Amino acid sequence: MLVGGPLHQPTGPGASKIKCEMKLPWMDPRLELAALALLAAFGCGLALSQDNLLFAAIFGTACAASIFEEIQRFP
Q1: pLDDT tens-place string over residues 13-32
Q2: Tell me, what DSSP letter sits at residue 50?
Q3: What is the pTM of this model?
Q4: CA-CA distance, 29 to 6, in Å (whole number)?
């Protein structure tokens, strides 16, 4: 029998608690939302330069939503 597989949960006073986090240590959630807002604003400007109002509206909405989320999450 294999011990220490994915379903093995060590218990007791000597058990170690291992926490695995998949995010990059230097990646701040504010930076992620700001990057999304900038990317959406770039897409909106690019769509406007091509006279495509549908995609400009979509990217403009995405930009506004990410800015609103950033303001709401981080007062």
Answers
A1: 655 666 655 666 666 777 88
A2: T
A3: 0.58
A4: 29
